[in-house]
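Section 3.1: Structural characterization of target chains.
Under the original work plan, the team committed to producing a structural model for every single-chain target entering the pipeline before any wet-lab resources were allocated. The record below documents one such target. The sequence was received from the expression subgroup and is listed exactly as submitted; it comprises 213 residues.
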Amino acid sequence: MAACPSTTNWHGRCLRRGEGEAVVHRSVKGLFGIAIRTCDGEIGTIDDVLFEDRWWTIRYLVAKRGEWPRTRRVLVDPMSFGNVVWSIGSLDLKVWSGEIEGAWIGPREAHAIKADPHLMSARHVLGDGIRALDGAFGRVDDLLLNDQSWTVDDLALHTRRWLPSKLVLIPHDNVQGIDAKRGLVQVDLNKDSVRHQKAWKRRCLGDDIHATP
């Protein structure tokens, strides 16, 4: 198979890191709608992120192809990516589309996803309420993806349910469980402890990343 051509570095802002450099956390919400591109073209746009709520690993990206009524969705395993280049507006993979392990989401795959109680949709978790040790408050605004380990390391929370509020980060270790049916995320902190967690602001200009030295 021919070598993969160089991947475009849009506006010179593509992030490339070597061993020992800072871990970069990316906004999962900011991934929705960006293109997944391989050496031989675009395979779709990111429509959802499915993660395992026990180990917080990203199991699949859900790539959407085409427009309604001919929309199709495919599950893409991030562990098959290999060398990833993050560009503005796209996730560029230095592989050919045939090398990516994926499966179209048909009735059987959709049923399997719903039947797995530990496989969570990021789209569904965003906006869920927070249940602290001393009661319910706030909501989940975003999830922060470690783009080296493909894990959700932190949750970005609003400290108020409806009114504007600051965003704070809590590690996934503080989450005791996710009740998908009730739309609640249980944490092992009280309300005051959550409010005093590290504040977080999303970067401007679409650069939705958070660097941790």
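The helical segments are 107-115, 122-125, 191-195.
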